[in-house]
Amino acid sequence: MAGGGDLFRALLRAANALLQQRRYHAALAVIKGFRNGAVYGAKIRAPHALVMTFLFKSGSLREKLKSIAQATYAHSRNLAYFVFTYKGLLAVQSQLQGKKVPFHSFLAACIGGWLVFGDNNPINSQIVMYLLSRILFALSRLAVEKGYIPQPKQDPFPLVAALVWGTVLWLFEYHRGTLQPSLQSSMTYLYEDSELWHDLSDFLIYNKRTDSK
């Protein structure tokens, strides 16, 4: 037993010494990026899938748990693959050119996005749309910072909020099929199911009755 403990401690010291080597930093960063992508993807997707599945999906408990596990795995895997690809391509470009330049980040992310998130499925679609909304805000702020557009005299957010909500409800009412399925489900729950009830039970306690009354 003592010999086994000594061997483990020796391996641990060797691993820690390897992690301190600067010449391996780029390769090790790619590996840790894969790890962080997998963990973060699981942390983000698992609670979201849990809530959305039990709110809107029918089926047995086993089917629901399977759906949650599949969505969590897909998000975790894709994010891990993307971070691995992105950081790997950054390291290769930096090594080839001798330094890191801003275009490296754009090119590496474009390639990673094409390879990992290019498949048009519900998970990838949701992630891309999440990012799209945020980069539109970021690019607007950057345009102001660079002087490409004038600094607004008043906060434009109220106008943005009005246009966003006006547009999404118009689409839901008249062009529903253009919206993502999970958004359709959320809006159906909020704006259509609230129009239907039979008695106090499905007016205040439940959304819909499950009996045959």
UniProtKB/TrEMBL annotation:
The organism of origin for this protein: Nicator chloris
The record, for Pfam families, names: Tim17
> Organism's domain of life?
Eukaryota
Gene name, per UniProt, is: Pxmp4
Of the GO CC terms on this record, one is:
peroxisomal membrane
Protein's name according to its UniProt entry: PXMP4 protein
PANTHER family linked: PEROXISOMAL MEMBRANE PROTEIN 4 (PTHR15460)
